[in-house]
Design brief:
139 residues; mainly alpha; 5 helices; transmembrane; transmembrane helix
Length: 139
Amino acid sequence: MTTAILSLLGVIVGAMLQFFFARHLEGKRHHREVRAKAYADYLQCVSELANVQPQRQSVEGRQLGARTADAKCRVSLYGSAAVVSAFASFERLGATMNTSEQRSAFTAMVGAMREDALGGSSVQAADLEIVLLGAHDAT
């Protein structure tokens, strides 16, 4: 009788632990996905801005501005401290790519996003800058 009760108790405790661990891992996975999507959405907006350059007052320009603001808000909400700090540095410089300092700040921000989204996977800043901005713009 005691063995049966202990066995049943073990099964119940095991099921509860499995449930809580699965729930915890699902929450972490969801947060990681939301964070990575915010990073990707912001970078897509930057790419559209650089390649399409819609007029700010046009419907397309206002929609792109709204999507960019939304992505920035999600980055500030879900992003790691390192990403938010790198993002703030880029914004302080004007959030454009006109100077080598601005391009370096943008590259550092994308590098921080990459490390955060991929769990520490780093790449050389110079290589990342060439991929993002092209060889002729890289510092």
